[in-house]
Design brief:
The structure holds 2 protein chains of 2 kinds. By secondary structure, chain A is an alpha/beta fold. Chain A has 12 helices and 8 strands. In chain A, strands 3-2-4-1-5-6-7-8 form an 8-stranded mixed beta sheet, sandwiched between helices. By secondary structure, chain B is an alpha/beta fold. Chain B contains 10 helices and 8 strands. An 8-stranded mixed beta sheet of chain B has the order 3-2-4-1-5-6-7-8, sandwiched between helices. The chains are: A alpha/beta, B alpha/beta. At the A-B interface, helix 3 and helix 7 of A face helix 1, helix 5 and helix 8 of B. The structure holds guanosine-5'-triphosphate (GTP) (2 copies) and magnesium ion (2 copies). One guanosine-5'-triphosphate (GTP) sits at the interface of chains B and A.
């Protein structure tokens, strides 16, 4: 029963009785509150509600007997649709297939590199991880340590040039018939011109098959700013949302999806190497609506 | 950019948008809008600034009485290890003797990361590569600090989500060791809050505070575009003051929190 699941919204809407033109405004405000509390960006929430209203009017739900219930059903379905109702795949057609990881500091890129590597290894693919973060203290050691843990080799050139490291790693992978190369990069601010140029340079030289934006699922309103900037700098092919084993509602998922237009492909659900799952839009919608 | 003008519906909406976009959260923004609506006079932005200043209170300074131990805790990736290094520099520059304890015994290369910082700082670090027990490393660190008359021990801990009861218990155990075995050490605990994160930071702090009394927060990654407006709720609802802000990835990138500067950056 949908109204049992979204008790919070339903309790708020129930008090409004039949949804009419006069209280649709109030209804929208209540929905907006729920979305904002879940960290969905304000403008994204507004656009979403406008879209839902149009849909509601289109299905004549506003004249129905149980408007609250119907309205919530539309919101829920629309949210699932926005989050991406198709499961997204990773492009494994390259020889090798190259995956470039990008994102803000601390979002979980290095850990996710290893999780992806383990997943592909389990599928009997030959994987190479590349330590292209030459800035963060012991970043290379971190990737090497994870590589030992999952028995996947790590390519590094110490504190060299990240662009050269990536180019050389892909060349080596080609010659060794590696299936998948995963490029771990340094966390960077979207407003750091030099660092954004660097990752654009890597993309330009290597032409990866996948460019994945790794984002913390607990991100707040600013998710639109950083995600938009990354998607304008790089042709992102997908997003990975991390730390979903926390209890953040995860509204950033909607913001990021809206602003980048790319599918959310995976969810990080623990610190462990098996803590990666395909993204589940329905579960995410449940979580956001609380 | 909010224009200083008389309160109109449009200016209220603009204020609401600006504050929500900075992650102040609905209930804090509602409170502020109520104040503005009640006292709708000219120049309501000053009204807002005053209210915000009152909320955040006066600058809090941590008193570091020797010997002290500072636990740095927080959620994964929020900047604990980097902040530990910055704090070490801050207090070393004040003439205090500092010792670092690498009590993140879990994450790959966590010890190596802090070790890099300790070398750059020329500050000693206590660690145990083979240990999987952060409490025992903490114990070694405090024993060492005691014998060397160290002023301040700064402890780097593993990132953790409050949803893991066993990890919260681990923090409680560390506090117990300090209180029971090293009662002469003054304990203060600092939590890192990532300015990029949303309303869940309030919940994080609430939960962490059940396991360890928090003396203050460091708002990290304020050199990005996120504004960390959750600090108002942290102070108003949980009485947690922000002591420092992190403005970059280097040792010098730590500023004492200045409420007036912060408020100006929010209100433009
Ligand atoms: N609980 C949980 N922790 C995670 C998850 N993904 C990453 N982490 C943790 O988040 C922290 C940061 O992860 P990293 O992989 O170092 O992040 P990063 O993006 O590479 O960081 P930088 O390279 O500094 O930008 C570590 O403590 C990880 O163990 C996840 O899905 N769940
Ligand atoms: N731009 C910016 N980056 C920061 C700041 N503080 C930390 N970082 C970066 O954030 C990333 C994570 O920092 P860490 O110090 O490893 O975070 P942590 O909380 O110790 O991470 P875990 O131990 O894995 O939980 C690193 O890339 C840091 O350089 C800051 O104030 N500004
Ligand atoms: Mg990394
Ligand atoms: Mg750390």
């Amino acid at each position: 029963q949908i109204t049992d699941r979204f008790d919070t919204i339903f309790r708020r809407l129930r008090g409004l009785g039949k949804i009419t033109d006069t209280n649709i405004q109030e209804t929208s405000r209540e929905i907006r509150r729920v979305l904002l509390e879940a960290d969905v960006n304000l403008q994204v929430a507004r656009d979403f509600i406008t879209h839902v209203k149009v849909k509601a009017e289109g299905t004549k739900v506003l004249k129905s007997i149980k408007p609250g219930e119907q309205f919530i059903k539309i919101i829920y379905e629309e949210l699932i649709h926005v989050l991406g109702d198709e499961t997204a795949e990773i492009d494994l057609n390259g020889k090798p297939s190259v995956i470039l990881m990008a994102g803000l500091q601390g979002s979980g890129k290095t850990t996710t590199c290893a999780k992806l590597a383990k997943m592909f290894t389990n599928q009997n693919k030959k994987v190479l991880m590349v330590a292209a973060d030459v800035y963060r203290p012991a970043a290379i050691e971190q990737l090497q340590s994870l590589g030992r843990q999952i028995d996947v080799p790590v390519y590094d050139e110490g504190l060299g040039d990240p662009v050269a490291i990536c180019v050389n790693a892909v060349a080596k992978a080609k010659s060794e018939k590696v299936d998948i190369v995963i490029l771990d990069t340094a966390g960077r601010l979207h407003i750091d011109g030099e660092m954004m140029n660097e990752i654009q340079h890597i993309w330009d030289e290597v032409k990866p098959n996948e460019i994945l934006f790794v984002a913390d699922s607990m991100t707040g309103q600013d998710a639109v700013t950083s995600a938009k900037a990354f998607s304008e700098a790089l042709p992102l092919t997908g997003t990975i949302l991390t730390k979903l084993d926390g209890d953040a509602r995860g509204g950033a998922a909607v913001s990021i999806r809206q602003v980048t237009g790319t599918p959310i492909k995976f969810a990080g659900v623990s610190e462990k190497m098996d803590g990666l799952e395909p993204f589940n839009p329905k579960q995410m919608a449940d979580r956001i609506l609380g | 950019q909010i224009v200083k003008e008389k309160v109109s519906l449009q200016s209220l909406e603009q204020l609401e948008e600006t504050l929500l976009a900075s992650d102040l959260g609905l209930s804090t923004v509602d409170d502020i809008l109520d104040i503005v609506k009640k006292h709708s006079k000219e120049n309501f932005i000053n009204e807002v600034a005053d209210y915000m200043q009152q909320s955040l209170g006066h600058e809090k300074e941590l008193e570091i009485k020797s010997p002290s131990v500072m636990l740095v805790v927080g959620v994964n990736g929020t900047g604990k290890t980097t902040t530990v290094a910055k704090l070490a520099k801050y207090y070393k520059d004040q003439g205090k003797s500092v010792l670092l304890v690498a009590a993140d015994t879990y994450r790959a290369a966590a010890i190596a990361q802090l070790h890099q910082w300790s070398k750059r700082l020329n500050v000693r670090m206590v660690c145990n590569e083979k240990s999987q027990d952060p409490t025992s490393v903490l114990f070694d660190g405090l024993k060492s600090a005691k014998s060397e008359n160290i002023d301040l021990v700064i402890v780097d801990t593993a990132g953790r989500l409050h949803t893991y009861k066993n990890l919260m218990n681990e923090l409680e155990k560390m506090v117990r060791v300090i209180r029971d075995r090293f009662p002469e050490f003054n304990l203060c605990s600092i939590m890192t809050i990532d300015a990029n994160l949303g309303q869940n930071s309030l919940h994080q702090v609430r939960e962490f505070a059940k396991s360890v009394h928090l003396d203050g927060a460091v708002l990290t990654k304020m050199d990005g575009t996120a504004r960390g407006g959750i600090v108002f709720a942290l102070k108003n609802e949980l009485d947690l003051p922000v002591l420092f802000i992190g403005i970059g990835e280097e040792l010098n990138d730590l500023n004492e929190f200045a409420a007036d500067e912060y408020i100006n950056s929010l209100l433009g």
